[in-house]
Amino acid sequence: MNEADSQYIARRALSAGYTIAAKPHDASVVVLNTCTVRETAQRRAYGRMAHLGVLKSGNPNLKLVVTGCLAEQDRDRMRRAVPHVDAVFGTSELGLLGDALVDWRPYFEETDATESDVLLQTIGGEPDCITDQFSGLRAFVTVQRGCSYYCTFCIVPHVRGRFDHRPMEEILRDVREKVRSGAREVMLVGQTVNSYRDGTGADFGALASAVCGVEGLERLSFISPHPKDFTEKIVRELAALPQLNPRIHLPLQSASDPVLRRMNRKYTAAQYAEKLALFRAYAPSWAVTTDIIVGFPGETESDFQQTLDFCERTQFAQAYMFIYSPRRGTPAAKWDPVPPSVTAARFKRLSDVQNDATLAYHRKKIGKTVRALITGPSKKDPAKLAGKTTDNVTVIAPAPGDFDPLQYAATPWMDVRVDGAHVWGCTGVMISRAHRYADGGVEVSAPVFDLIAL
Fold this sequence. Notes:
The chain is an alpha/beta fold. It has 15 helices and 17 strands. Helix 2 links the parallel strand 1 and strand 2. Helix 13 packs parallel to helix 14. It is globular, with a radius of gyration of 23 Å.
């Protein structure tokens, strides 16, 4: 959701005459899009705001803007804690942020950074959502905002409001625009995306079918569904769509019914298993991934063991595992916590089980050639390219000898012969690339190795 919002902000800035700076100290406006789903994200956001204050001291004309969930939740506190922030826009005020960018634009002169400006370096890593040749290949289209389910651990309904489903024609218009702009994959985004209903009563299956009818769309994915909202009709319709990526993310959170009731998840472990069986029946080759929270208040050893046993039986292709993080303003934040030492031990046990399952899933790809959408140079090694397969597995391969970002962004599907498997993904050698997902591959040059560095 935040990536979708960040792309919207970047588009508004570009249409107002801005360019996207690669470094914060090159910018006239710095926008920090924040998250408050977990405490670590909140701490990092405040830390980044403090570090960005050094830019304001060196350039008083700089506009520092904060938006996102934390801005919605902490608007008044933020102004006191970080007074150098120029503007705060909540999650429902992205349009106002775009208008402000338009209003500010005439006041910025086109000047080069001075030698002293270059010395102003902020702490906290490189900025995200900076546009490059590969950033528009996967586009995000929001189909709903907010959530009305009020899970007791979740802050989202409190900072993004209740369900607000967009009309289908607006969504289709956005998809067409993304495809015309070069997107090869479109991801439909919503907090409980499969609960979608528009004014005509069309459900998520109808929406996905209509999106797949958009001319030029190569691949479709979506995040994040809620198990209770999948009906057999929707699952059957999704499984029949050839452009839909073969992966379903089905958040479990816990396999203990008492814990699920305290979480207000609105399903039992047995009902979750029934939804899982639907996908196994209609889409048996799809990867199934999930979310799990460890150490939710009141979780007993028996509760946790049920979750552990469920994961061992199910063999999820991947799981996003979290230690429970209390969120201010949610009911669960007031409940007695599980001791940290107990939670940490349980998390280690779950990680061991799930990492074994994920590694086994990735090992099945060894010796096979997989097609992946290039995401750009690897963050850990710029001499290698990273990509995502349609079942959302990260693949890393040395950049071919003829690698050129512009050319490869125009033919962004890479075929990688997998020769290694890890918990985080797969490694291999790129053997060909293609313009469109359905095209045959064109052979690439062998990688160039720096023998001196080796």
